[in-house]
Amino acid sequence: MFDWAIRWSLRNRLTVVLLYLILAGASIVAALSMAVDVFPEYAPPQVQIQTEVPGYSAKDVETLVTRPIEIVLQGAPYIDQIRSNSSVGLSRITIVFKWGIDIYRARQIIQERMQTVQGQLPSGAQAPQMMPVTSAVSWLLKFGLVDWSGSDREHELRTLVDWDIRNRLLAQPGVASVVAVGGGVKQYQVLLDPLRMRKYGVSTAMVTQALRSANLVAPGGFVYPSSEEEYFIRANGKVESLRDVADTLVAMRGGQPIHIGDVGEVRFGSEVKRGDGQIYGGPAVIGTVSKLWGADTMETTRNVEKVLASMAENLPKDVQLIPNVFRQASFIDASIDNLRDALLHSSIIVALVLLLFLFRWRPTAISLIAIPTSLMAGVLVLWALDISINALTLGGLVFAIGEGWTTPSSTSRTSCAACAKTSWPTRRCRPWTSSTKVRGRSATRWSSPPSSSWWRSLRSFSCRASKAASSSRWRSPTWLPSPARWSWPSRWCRC
Fold it and tell me: Are the beta carbons of 217 and 235 closer than 8 angstroms?
């Protein structure tokens, strides 16, 4: 087979060059269309449900919220396991599905089951919510908003992140969620005075009901002063200041109105904190951006960084936006740099070795052409197998460069040392040796299957990547014959 390939290549040198150019163009197009990530999607499809129950202890959350939801979810199709965590005021349930099921089909199954659980939850519990569809390595980027003024501006920073930056980031393709930690969530707080409440005969339930009915907008109907005019009437009861809350009516006593301000103090305050943020010694709000399942890490990161850069131009004085507290794309950049360095260093080493030992430029050209050809073939195989570009595949390509360059270099040395009768058997055995190595590594991966689903997924991924590595190393002897014509003149025997 390889004899025929070499003879055909020597007779059709222009065709081989054209095929090489087609391979180069196809690999570039495929690489540009492939998703770029740190790791492949190694986790099975998962759906997470969170339910907030303010004021409930962890034990009560487990008994009144987590257990009823788990009972409803049991028996749903395609579910592999159900995990739960109950903390103060919060219930988290993670449903792990079997491999192969579509993530959106899994969410539909959970949504149908959750419709029957709402009536079983306590009155203070909020509606259970499904979390966004995030990637296995969900943290895309973390940014920080730091106040260097020294004044208390925690409400201003947190409001800026929650209502301005967060909404802008959620509009970007590939962003699943934006979660902020630190600062203070602004609240209108009423501190009741028991003595004044007793004086006016007002209970806590009356104050709560008054506050609930205060911040409302009600339609009032229409007025038609003429056949060509129409006016809309509405009752605007929205709260816009602390005074609006203080003037809210609670009750009437002897014809005298009793307001919220008569029985307590109204002020701005912060929600109870479950964490805080600090950067370089200054108070900060840390925002975590998570990406959608299957989104391109590099493209999504670029979109997020553009939004953060535009927001940084309009920040208040003494407020700094740090866009790279954590950046997942930096790991990908490092892997690509390693691949580039490996390609450059291996090419230099091969060129020096062949020039020093053979004193010929033609064998050097053969090896320098074979190395990028192997990479291009490997990229095409990864694209055909629907494998993303990530740290594992880039590491495999670096490994293939390290071992794959020995095939063309050894062939060049053999071809210059003897005639075709000696070099051809050597050429024949090189690809079979490479293939045997890859099969041996694949067999090692499958020999002792671990129980962890995470490792099983990586094992499956590594076996598919081995096919790409095998292809990249098979290409070098297959496409070498065209330049080899320069090293074997006059019936292959004179060097």
Answer: yes
The model scores a pTM over 0.70: no
What would you report as the CA-atom Rg of the chain, rounded to the nearest whole angstrom?
34
Kindly report the CATH number that applies to the domain delimited by 43-131: 3.30.70.1430
Contact criterion met (CB below 8 Å) for 251 and 240: no
CATH topology of domain 187-270: 3.30.2090
- Residue 277: phi and psi, rounded to 5, are -130, 145
Q: What is the pLDDT along the chain (495 residues), one digit of tens a residue?
A: 667 877 887 788 888 888 888 888 888 888 888 877 777 777 788 899 999 998 889 999 999 999 999 999 988 899 999 999 999 889 999 999 998 888 889 999 999 888 888 788 888 888 899 988 887 777 889 999 998 887 878 888 899 999 999 999 999 998 988 999 988 888 899 999 999 999 999 999 999 999 888 888 888 788 888 888 888 888 888 888 899 899 999 998 888 899 999 999 999 988 888 788 888 877 889 999 998 887 888 889 999 999 999 999 888 888 889 998 999 888 888 877 887 787 788 778 877 877 777 777 777 777 777 777 877 888 888 888 877 777 777 777 777 666 655 555 555 544 444 444 444 444 444 443 444 344 434 433 443 444 445 445 545 544 554 445 444 444 443 333 333 333 333 333 333
The span from the CA of 21 to the CA of 62, in Å, is 63
Q: Which CATH number fits domain 2-38+331-484: 1.10.10.10, 1.10.10.60, 1.10.357.10, 1.20.1640.10?
A: 1.20.1640.10
